[in-house]
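Translate sequence into structure tokens.
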Amino acid sequence: ELSNQIVAMYIASGDYAIAEEYFNQIKDPSVTNYVGIMNYYNQLKNWERTIQLYDKMKSQRKTQADVPTYLTVLTAIKEMKNIEAAKQVEQDLIKQNLWHNHAEIQNILGEILGNTE
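Result follows.
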């Protein structure tokens, strides 16, 4: 979809404010665009908005989180020290069978949850 490409172009050029405007108008944003906007919010230290965007993405049946999505969301969760959100993401990872294959995800979750499952 052209609108996803426009958002990706603005993200790539570093013009996140315009990318966000376009992103908010897209019916079905791509995973790449979600991650790009989440990274933008993380740069602004707007951790809560990153988590809200992740929740919005999960509610869209066409869009499924990938490893970069989880790493971005877990960064926000770690900064917020939000144990409940970390547990929810852990469940999402288990459902997608991504938990055991990615050491970086395991490490971040371990830091947040205080264990090294």
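Note: DSSP finds seven helices and no strands in the chain.
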